[in-house]
Amino acid sequence: MDAAASNPATVPEQRSGSASDLVVLGLGYVGLPLAAEAVSAGLKVTGFDVSARVVDGLNNAVSHIDDLSSEDVNTMLDKGFSATTDPACLATARTIVICVPTPLSPEGGPDLGAVTSASKAVAAHMSPGTLVILESTTYPGTTEEVVRPLLEESGLVAGSDFRLAFSPERIDPGNQTFGVANTPKVVGGLTEECGEAAAAFYENFVNTVVRTRGTREAEMAKLLENTYRHVNIALVNEMAVFCQELGVDLWDSISAAATKPFGFQAFYPGPGVGGHCIPIDPNYLSYKVKTLGYPFRFVELAQEINGRMPSYVTQRAQELLNDSGLALSRSKVLLLGVTYKADIADQRESPARPVARKLAAKGATLTYHDPHVESWEVDGVNVPRSTDLEQALAEADLTVLLTDHGEYRPKLLNEYARLLLDTRGVLRRPDPDEAAEVPAQFRRRADREGIQVL
C-alpha cells in the first residue's frame, strides 16, 4: 500500500528523486520494529543511524535486537528497506521519525544529546512539507521547547512549512502479544493540522491511533504510564522487606488480592528494576517538576526503594548462607539470568549487575548462567559463564535467581539447587512440566529447607 494513496494528508507534495515515505532516525529497539512494520505496510523506508556497525549489519541482513530476527531483516531488505549513515537521505523524506536514546546524565537529569544531534541533522537536510515526529521518551515540553527551535534553524517554520508531532514509543521487548501494529499509538501535534498529519501517517500500519490535545500531553502520557509502574513496583518491593520480618508470605497475599475483579492490579517484588523505561523515565518527570520548585516525592521515594533492592538481595543471600553454616566470603554463588527481563538478551539497567557487584565486594566467587548472554562483565571484570545448568546448580553453594527465563523451571531448581534465593517468584508458578499439579503443591516447594522466595 502506498502511503500517499492511503492517507493523502501524510504527503503534502511529491518530491523529485528517490523519495522515501519514511526515514527512521535511530535503528535500535524502537526504530527498527517501527521501520519493519512500515515496510510490511508497503511504505518505502530508509533507516538512518550513526553506527556504521549497525548499518552494515542491517544491510547484510543481521539483526541486533531481540524482537526482529535476521530473517525478518532480510524480508525488509527484499521489500526495499535500506540503512545508511548518510544524513542526505533526510532531504527526500516525506516523514521523519526520531527514535534515538534518551538516557540519564551522570547527575541524574535528562541527557538530550542524541535528540539535539538528531534534530540538527534533520534541520540541515529536510525539505518543506516534511512531517517530523519525535518518539524518544522525554519530559513535557521537549518537542516544543528543544526540538522545534533546532528544526526551525533550517529557516522553515513549524506548523506552516513543516509539521511537527510527538508520539511516545510503547515497545516492550520480548512481548509476543503486543507489537507496533496492535498497541494503540498516542499522537500529539504542535498544531491541529500537525496532529492530523501524524495520525494519518501512523494509521498506515497501526490499528488504533489516539490523539492528544498537543505534544505536551503526549509526552506526559508516556511518563505517566511508567511512573505508575515504577511507584507500584516500589510499593511491593518495600512490602517484601517488612513481610519477611513479619513472617507474612507476600506472594500468597498478592495472589489472594488479585482475585478481586476490580480495583486491584497485581505487581510483584524483584531484585530491582531494569530496562529502558522504568529506571529512567520517571526521572525525566521528576526533573521537570523540580524546575517548578517542587519535589516529586513519589518518584524520588520509589527510586530510593527500588534502588536499594540489590542490597536487600545481597543481605538475604548472606543470611541464607549463614543459616546453613556458610560464609558468603568463602562461597560459590551462581547467578541465574543477567538480563533485565525474561527470555531476551537486553541487559540495559539490569539489577543483576549491582547485585553481582555487591556480592563480589563481600568476597563471593561468582559464576552466571544465562541462555541469552554469552559473556558478561561487571566493572570490567569478566564473570565466568556456566553452560551446564544442572551441574552449575549442583556445584554452587548458593543460587540466586535474578531473571525468570523460561528455562528455569521449578522442578529443575528444586531438584538441583543446594540453596536457592528466588527473587522472581518462579517457585510460585505452576511448572509447565507438571501441569496437573495444584497450586498448594507448588507453593510448598518454597518451604523446603534452603529454598526461599524474596
UniProtKB/TrEMBL annotation:
Q: Name one Pfam family in it.
A: UDPG_MGDP_dh_C
Show where the UDP-glucose/GDP-mannose dehydrogenase C-terminal domain sits: 334-429
**Gene3D superfamilies xref list:** NAD(P)-binding Rossmann-like Domain
Query: Which SUPFAM superfamilies would you find in this protein's record?
Result: 6-phosphogluconate dehydrogenase C-terminal domain-like, NAD(P)-binding Rossmann-fold domains, UDP-glucose/GDP-mannose dehydrogenase C-terminal domain
Q: InterPro entries this protein is in? A: 6-PGluconate_DH-like_C_sf, NAD(P)-bd_dom_sf, UDP-Glc/GDP-Man, UDP-Glc/GDP-Man_DH_C, UDP-Glc/GDP-Man_DH_C_sf, UDP-Glc/GDP-Man_DH_dimer, UDP-Glc/GDP-Man_DH_N, UDP_ManNAc/GlcNAc_DH
Instruction: Give the record's keywords alphabetically.
Output: NAD, Oxidoreductase
Instruction: Write out the similarity annotation.
Output: Belongs to the UDP-glucose/GDP-mannose dehydrogenase family.
Quote the PANTHER family the UniProt record gives: UDP-N-ACETYL-D-MANNOSAMINE DEHYDROGENASE
Kindly give the NCBIfam families that the UniProt entry links to this protein: NDP-sugDHase
* The protein's name in its UniProt record: Nucleotide sugar dehydrogenase
